[in-house]
Amino acid sequence: MPDRGDYPGAEAFVPPDATSREDLAEAARGCHGCDLYEQATQTVFGRGPTPARIMLVGEQPGDVEDKRGEPFVGPAGRLLDRALAEAGIDPASAYRTNAVKHFRWKPAPRGGTRRIGVTPDVRHINACRPWLIAELKVVKPDVIVTLGAIAGRSLLGPSFRATKARGTLIEYRPPDIPGMTALLVPTIHPSAVLRSPDRDAAYAGFVDDLRVAARVLASPDAAKPSP
Protein backbone atom coordinates (compact mmCIF):
# COMPACT_ATOMS: atom_id res chain seq x y z
CA MET A 1 0.00 0.00 0.00
CA PRO A 2 1.52 3.36 -1.00
CA ASP A 3 2.11 5.91 1.71
CA ARG A 4 -0.27 8.87 1.76
CA GLY A 5 2.66 11.06 0.79
CA ASP A 6 2.94 9.15 -2.51
CA TYR A 7 -0.31 10.67 -3.78
CA PRO A 8 0.41 14.05 -5.42
CA GLY A 9 -3.14 15.47 -5.53
CA ALA A 10 -5.16 16.24 -8.64
CA GLU A 11 -3.07 19.30 -9.47
CA ALA A 12 -0.47 16.94 -10.94
CA PHE A 13 -3.05 15.68 -13.45
CA VAL A 14 -5.03 18.83 -14.37
CA PRO A 15 -3.92 20.11 -17.80
CA PRO A 16 -2.76 23.72 -17.33
CA ASP A 17 -4.03 24.68 -20.78
CA ALA A 18 -7.42 22.91 -20.69
CA THR A 19 -10.15 24.96 -22.33
CA SER A 20 -13.05 22.51 -22.38
CA ARG A 21 -14.87 20.02 -20.21
CA GLU A 22 -13.83 17.27 -22.60
CA ASP A 23 -10.14 18.09 -22.11
CA LEU A 24 -10.56 17.93 -18.34
CA ALA A 25 -12.66 14.78 -18.35
CA GLU A 26 -10.13 12.96 -20.53
CA ALA A 27 -7.27 13.95 -18.21
CA ALA A 28 -9.26 13.02 -15.11
CA ARG A 29 -9.58 9.42 -16.27
CA GLY A 30 -5.97 8.87 -15.26
CA CYS A 31 -6.04 10.79 -12.00
CA HIS A 32 -4.22 9.07 -9.14
CA GLY A 33 -4.13 12.16 -6.98
CA CYS A 34 -5.41 10.30 -3.91
CA ASP A 35 -5.97 6.69 -2.93
CA LEU A 36 -9.67 6.56 -3.86
CA TYR A 37 -8.92 5.63 -7.47
CA GLU A 38 -7.73 2.23 -6.24
CA GLN A 39 -11.20 0.98 -5.28
CA ALA A 40 -13.37 3.02 -7.65
CA THR A 41 -14.55 1.64 -10.98
CA GLN A 42 -13.70 4.87 -12.78
CA THR A 43 -13.42 8.63 -12.46
CA VAL A 44 -16.85 10.27 -12.47
CA PHE A 45 -16.37 13.72 -13.97
CA GLY A 46 -18.87 16.55 -14.30
CA ARG A 47 -21.36 16.81 -17.15
CA GLY A 48 -23.58 19.48 -18.62
CA PRO A 49 -23.48 22.57 -20.81
CA THR A 50 -20.40 24.78 -20.77
CA PRO A 51 -20.60 27.59 -20.09
CA ALA A 52 -23.64 27.25 -17.83
CA ARG A 53 -25.42 29.81 -15.66
CA ILE A 54 -25.85 27.30 -12.84
CA MET A 55 -23.42 24.72 -11.50
CA LEU A 56 -24.46 22.03 -9.02
CA VAL A 57 -21.70 20.60 -6.84
CA GLY A 58 -22.39 17.36 -4.99
CA GLU A 59 -20.22 15.37 -2.63
CA GLN A 60 -18.98 12.18 -4.32
CA PRO A 61 -20.35 9.64 -6.82
CA GLY A 62 -22.63 6.93 -5.52
CA ASP A 63 -22.71 3.27 -6.46
CA VAL A 64 -24.76 3.79 -9.63
CA GLU A 65 -22.67 6.79 -10.71
CA ASP A 66 -19.44 4.85 -10.17
CA LYS A 67 -20.65 2.06 -12.44
CA ARG A 68 -22.05 4.33 -15.16
CA GLY A 69 -19.40 7.06 -15.03
CA GLU A 70 -21.89 9.94 -14.84
CA PRO A 71 -22.87 12.17 -11.92
CA PHE A 72 -26.39 12.21 -10.45
CA VAL A 73 -27.87 9.30 -12.39
CA GLY A 74 -29.01 7.29 -9.36
CA PRO A 75 -32.01 7.79 -7.04
CA ALA A 76 -30.61 11.06 -5.63
CA GLY A 77 -30.14 12.37 -9.16
CA ARG A 78 -33.73 11.61 -10.09
CA LEU A 79 -34.95 13.41 -6.99
CA LEU A 80 -32.67 16.35 -7.85
CA ASP A 81 -34.16 16.63 -11.34
CA ARG A 82 -37.68 16.69 -9.91
CA ALA A 83 -36.77 19.31 -7.31
CA LEU A 84 -35.02 21.54 -9.87
CA ALA A 85 -38.06 21.51 -12.14
CA GLU A 86 -40.38 22.25 -9.23
CA ALA A 87 -38.15 25.16 -8.18
CA GLY A 88 -38.29 26.63 -11.69
CA ILE A 89 -34.87 25.56 -12.97
CA ASP A 90 -34.54 23.57 -16.19
CA PRO A 91 -32.56 20.46 -15.17
CA ALA A 92 -30.92 20.34 -18.60
CA SER A 93 -29.46 23.82 -18.07
CA ALA A 94 -27.36 22.81 -15.06
CA TYR A 95 -23.77 21.62 -15.05
CA ARG A 96 -23.41 18.83 -12.45
CA THR A 97 -20.30 17.62 -10.74
CA ASN A 98 -18.95 16.40 -7.41
CA ALA A 99 -16.29 17.72 -5.06
CA VAL A 100 -14.68 14.26 -5.07
CA LYS A 101 -14.56 12.37 -8.35
CA HIS A 102 -14.05 8.78 -7.13
CA PHE A 103 -16.47 6.64 -5.12
CA ARG A 104 -15.32 5.78 -1.59
CA TRP A 105 -17.14 2.73 -0.30
CA LYS A 106 -17.12 -0.28 1.98
CA PRO A 107 -18.81 -3.67 1.59
CA ALA A 108 -22.19 -4.20 3.18
CA PRO A 109 -21.72 -5.63 6.71
CA ARG A 110 -23.63 -8.82 5.90
CA GLY A 111 -21.79 -9.54 2.70
CA GLY A 112 -23.17 -9.61 -0.81
CA THR A 113 -22.39 -7.26 -3.67
CA ARG A 114 -23.89 -4.09 -2.18
CA ARG A 115 -21.43 -1.22 -1.73
CA ILE A 116 -22.05 1.41 0.95
CA GLY A 117 -20.72 4.93 0.43
CA VAL A 118 -18.20 6.24 2.97
CA THR A 119 -17.70 9.97 3.53
CA PRO A 120 -14.44 11.16 1.96
CA ASP A 121 -11.74 12.49 4.28
CA VAL A 122 -10.42 16.04 4.23
CA ARG A 123 -7.35 14.77 2.37
CA HIS A 124 -9.59 13.44 -0.42
CA ILE A 125 -11.50 16.73 -0.67
CA ASN A 126 -8.29 18.76 -0.79
CA ALA A 127 -6.61 16.41 -3.26
CA CYS A 128 -9.57 16.62 -5.68
CA ARG A 129 -10.21 20.37 -5.37
CA PRO A 130 -8.04 21.33 -8.40
CA TRP A 131 -10.51 19.49 -10.66
CA LEU A 132 -13.39 21.52 -9.23
CA ILE A 133 -11.50 24.78 -9.73
CA ALA A 134 -10.68 23.77 -13.30
CA GLU A 135 -14.38 23.08 -13.92
CA LEU A 136 -15.33 26.49 -12.54
CA LYS A 137 -12.99 28.11 -15.04
CA VAL A 138 -14.68 26.28 -17.91
CA VAL A 139 -18.30 26.49 -16.72
CA LYS A 140 -18.19 30.17 -15.62
CA PRO A 141 -21.43 29.95 -13.59
CA ASP A 142 -23.53 32.83 -12.32
CA VAL A 143 -24.84 30.60 -9.52
CA ILE A 144 -23.24 27.69 -7.69
CA VAL A 145 -25.40 25.37 -5.60
CA THR A 146 -23.46 23.25 -3.13
CA LEU A 147 -25.28 20.03 -2.28
CA GLY A 148 -24.14 18.89 1.15
CA ALA A 149 -21.35 19.66 3.58
CA ILE A 150 -18.46 18.22 1.56
CA ALA A 151 -19.27 20.38 -1.46
CA GLY A 152 -19.51 23.47 0.72
CA ARG A 153 -16.25 22.75 2.52
CA SER A 154 -14.44 22.15 -0.75
CA LEU A 155 -15.25 25.69 -1.89
CA LEU A 156 -15.70 27.62 1.37
CA GLY A 157 -13.31 25.90 3.75
CA PRO A 158 -13.47 23.49 6.71
CA SER A 159 -15.59 25.74 8.93
CA PHE A 160 -18.56 25.60 6.54
CA ARG A 161 -21.76 24.08 7.97
CA ALA A 162 -24.48 23.26 5.45
CA THR A 163 -27.29 23.18 8.02
CA LYS A 164 -26.52 26.75 9.16
CA ALA A 165 -25.88 28.29 5.74
CA ARG A 166 -28.48 26.49 3.62
CA GLY A 167 -30.81 28.65 1.57
CA THR A 168 -28.69 31.78 1.92
CA LEU A 169 -26.86 33.74 -0.77
CA ILE A 170 -23.09 33.94 -0.45
CA GLU A 171 -20.93 36.05 -2.71
CA TYR A 172 -18.19 33.69 -3.80
CA ARG A 173 -14.85 34.88 -5.08
CA PRO A 174 -12.59 31.85 -5.53
CA PRO A 175 -9.02 32.79 -4.58
CA ASP A 176 -7.77 30.41 -7.27
CA ILE A 177 -9.59 32.32 -10.05
CA PRO A 178 -8.81 36.06 -9.89
CA GLY A 179 -11.68 38.23 -11.09
CA MET A 180 -14.38 35.58 -10.89
CA THR A 181 -17.53 36.25 -8.86
CA ALA A 182 -20.56 34.02 -8.46
CA LEU A 183 -23.46 33.72 -6.05
CA LEU A 184 -23.38 30.53 -4.02
CA VAL A 185 -26.45 28.84 -2.50
CA PRO A 186 -25.75 26.04 -0.02
CA THR A 187 -28.28 23.29 0.58
CA ILE A 188 -28.43 19.64 1.63
CA HIS A 189 -27.60 16.75 -0.65
CA PRO A 190 -30.63 15.09 -2.30
CA SER A 191 -29.59 11.78 -0.72
CA ALA A 192 -30.25 13.42 2.66
CA VAL A 193 -33.86 13.88 1.56
CA LEU A 194 -34.09 10.18 0.70
CA ARG A 195 -32.73 9.25 4.13
CA SER A 196 -34.93 11.65 6.08
CA PRO A 197 -37.58 10.18 8.41
CA ASP A 198 -39.89 12.97 7.18
CA ARG A 199 -39.15 12.88 3.48
CA ASP A 200 -41.98 15.24 2.49
CA ALA A 201 -40.74 18.01 4.80
CA ALA A 202 -37.12 17.47 3.78
CA TYR A 203 -38.05 17.62 0.11
CA ALA A 204 -40.08 20.82 0.57
CA GLY A 205 -37.13 22.48 2.31
CA PHE A 206 -34.79 21.34 -0.44
CA VAL A 207 -37.03 22.84 -3.12
CA ASP A 208 -37.25 26.09 -1.16
CA ASP A 209 -33.44 26.32 -1.16
CA LEU A 210 -33.32 25.71 -4.91
CA ARG A 211 -35.89 28.46 -5.40
CA VAL A 212 -33.33 30.91 -3.99
CA ALA A 213 -31.04 29.96 -6.85
CA ALA A 214 -33.94 30.18 -9.32
CA ARG A 215 -34.72 33.75 -8.21
CA VAL A 216 -31.11 34.75 -8.79
CA LEU A 217 -31.17 33.25 -12.27
CA ALA A 218 -34.37 35.15 -13.04
CA SER A 219 -32.99 38.45 -11.79
CA PRO A 220 -31.42 40.93 -14.22
CA ASP A 221 -28.96 41.81 -11.45
CA ALA A 222 -27.57 38.29 -11.16
CA ALA A 223 -23.80 37.99 -11.07
CA LYS A 224 -22.30 37.66 -14.53
CA PRO A 225 -19.72 35.00 -15.37
CA SER A 226 -16.14 36.14 -15.64
CA PRO A 227 -14.71 36.49 -19.14
Automatic annotation (TrEMBL):
Alphabetic keyword roster: 4Fe-4S, DNA damage, DNA repair, Hydrolase, Iron, Iron-sulfur, Metal-binding
Signal peptide positions (record): none
Highest classification ranks of the organism: Bacteria, Bacillati, Actinomycetota, Actinomycetes, Micromonosporales
GO molecular function: 4 iron, 4 sulfur cluster binding; deaminated base DNA N-glycosylase activity; metal ion binding
Residue ranges annotated for the Uracil-DNA glycosylase-like domain, each copy included: 45-211
Keyword hit for Kinase: no
NAD recorded as keyword: no
One GO-annotated biological process of the protein: DNA repair
Matching Pfam families: UDG (PF03167)
NCBIfam families named among the record's database cross-references: UDG_fam4, UDG_fam_dom
Name of the protein: Type-4 uracil-DNA glycosylase
